[in-house]
Here is the input.
Amino acid sequence: MEDQVRLGVIAIAIGLAFGVVLFVPFVAVSYRRRGRLGVGRALLWLSALIYFWAIWTYTLLPLPDPETIRCVGAITDPVSVVRDVQKALAAPGSPLRQPALLQLVFNVLLFMPLGFFVRVIAGRGVLTALAVGFGLSLLVETTQLTGVWGIYPCAYRFFDVGDLMTNTLGAVVGCMLALVVPRKLRGAKASPDADLPRPVTRGRRALAMLCDALAYGFLSTAIGVTVQVWLEYVVRDRAAVIDGSISSAAGAVVPAGLFLVLILSTGRSVGDFAVQLRYTGSRLPAPIARPLRWAGGIAGLSALALGGTLFDLASSILILVAIVLLFTTRLGRGLPGVLSGQRLVDARSDIEDPQPFPITNA
Here is the structure.
């Protein structure tokens, strides 16, 4: 039981990690296909991510020590499933106490969510669920048969045709059970009103800030790691790798510069693009308002910390101020709006603000 719980925790952790990585593009796609981010659909996709990794953790892990594995063969007789059921029913006591029958039931249950996701997320029917269920099960069984594609000298888990059958059955059953979900909630079809402007709310602006923070963080990490690898294997400067100051500086300066270029050229940040927002209406000309909008965002505030200890402290304080202003300024226009004198509008709207806010108005 402890092993099963541990495998479940691993699947949840990996699924959540991938969910964080894919969050910004998911938000962007949701706003373009549905006009908003639905909490229910976001949780559904997160569940699908966790489920995908659960399939692999429960069927392949824990990976054994190559020195201690016991090679096994393959079960290719499809009638073995019928014999296992017959034996379980004929045995004294409850059939559900029989390991062979429990294994069959578990195989069906394990693939039922797959069929559910095929219908609810992809909007496809039983035939697709059957094909996807069989294909994924075949991939898992083949991975086991080949010793994880050659990592091990032989198979340490059985390739079982019966598992192919019961897994595929589970996917079909799950697809059929998904019929209880209303048709309008199934599939990835774009909403007819996805291009219509929607109210600007503080929650939407907070989501944009979160997307900006995630995008900046991922860029910073990727660039920092890239520089470390370059120093280690190209420059071969071990001292610089250990010191880490070059990679840290690059991980802060480059993302801040990329955000600046994006905002100067479009007036919008990554988060603004993701949730379909834009700043407009300033009395200042764009060449001045846009850099100020950048300075009030995550990139500008993070770049401020490069100036040293006092600037680092100022950066932290201003980030807190930006969070407070999210809840205290009109429509959550926040620090970027205060500095640039702009207001927030839906990016799908052609309406400009006829009476822009004064620069000092919070």
Remarks:
- Residues 353-362 have pLDDT under 50 and may be disordered.
- The longest strand covers residues 277-280.
- DSSP finds 16 helices and four strands in the chain.
- The first helix runs from residue 2 to 21.
